[in-house]
UniProtKB/TrEMBL annotation:
It comes from the Bacteria. GO terms for cellular component: membrane. This is Transporter. It holds the Pfam family Mem_trans. Keywords: Cell membrane, Membrane, Transmembrane, Transmembrane helix, Transport. Signal peptide: none annotated.
Length: 297
């Protein structure tokens, strides 16, 4: 189990480290790179996953609801903590709420529980992404209009993918393959850009990063654990919810902070230390999830 977890997490740190190594000797235009990623590669990935995976969404309605409660509930639980500590809620709360359900959650769930876990992994990924680019953007800028959010490429791609999925619209294989190839660029590109930005981190804020590494999974689990008993989830869905709740902050938080110019250096620190902390948190969480699926006789 530990070997599987390391095989999933270590590539994340290797790619980010490559970006840091490159950025030390060159000065790449990271802002333009991030804009390209947010407006093209990420939307293509979201649409391709929704349209091609054909996750049976109707069978996962309770899991989707639970995932939404974990995301939103994490913010509500941590709001008084943020105010008490005098932290900037626009900088600290989004990474605590919007976790790494894409480039870590999906492969981790499939590696841990097999191909049958893929629909659950896709469903929680969809929920997290849609909330990130609706509620998350409103948190950063309350003046963001609904129409503006709907016109954003990532939101439009999510809605279009859902329509294709629910409507059962068949798409040509060559089109989906092209979208998968282009969309697949976004995850390593996000990690690479994060590595470049890490060179500018002020490590005097390491305490905030460490605090986030603890509060991110803790707040998610505080919400998820009661839902495991209250909602009619099957064992696999329950295990998926448990892993989802304990995931570290998403790399995408850094990209959004970069676009909104909201202390991207601090957000990068929260993301990096949070993902490092997952080397401790995720083995414990997976052990509990395995015990839930296969209880002792």
């Amino acid at each position: 189990m530990i070997g599987q977890i390391l095989a999933t997490l270590l590539p994340v740190f290797l790619i980010a480290g490559s970006g840091a190594a490159y950025g030390r000797f060159r000065t790449p235009d990271i802002r333009s790179l991030n804009t390209l990623n947010m407006e093209l590669f990420v939307p293509l990935l979201v649409f391709a996953v929704l349209a091609d995976r054909q996750a049976p969404l109707a069978e996962y309605a309770w899991l989707a609801s639970a995932a939404a409660l974990v995301v939103l509930g994490s913010g509500l639980v941590l709001w008084p903590v943020v105010k008490w500590l005098g932290l900037d809620s626009k900088v600290f709360l989004p990474p605590m709420m919007f976790n790494n359900s894409g480039n870590m959650g999906v492969p981790l769930l499939v590696l841990a529980f097999g191909p049958e876990a893929l629909p659950a992994a896709v469903v929680v990924f969809i929920v997290e992404m849609l909330l990130h680019f609706s509620v998350g953007l409103y948190m950063l800028d309350p003046r963001t209009s609904l129409w503006r959010m709907l016109r954003m490429p990532i939101v439009a791609a999510s809605l279009a993918g859902l329509l294709v999925n629910v409507g059962g619209v068949p798409l040509p294989g060559w089109l989906l393959e092209a979208m998968h190839m282009l969309g697949g660029v976004c995850i390593p590109l996000m990690l690479f850009a994060l590595g470049v930005r890490l060179l500018e981190i002020d490590f005097s804020d390491w305490r905030t990063g460490l605090l986030g590494a603890v509060l991110c999974p803790l707040s998610g689990l505080v919400i998820a654990l009661p839902l495991m008993w209250l909602l009619p989830l099957n064992p696999l869905q329950t295990a998926a919810l448990l892993v989802f709740a304990a995931l570290p902050p998403a790399v995408l938080n850094y990209l959004v902070a970069e676009q909104y110019k909201l202390a991207p250096h601090k957000v990068a620190s929260l993301v990096l230390i949070g993902n490092l902390g997952s080397l401790i948190v995720m083995p414990l969480t997976l052990a509990a999830a395995f015990a839930w699926i296969q209880p002792p006789p």
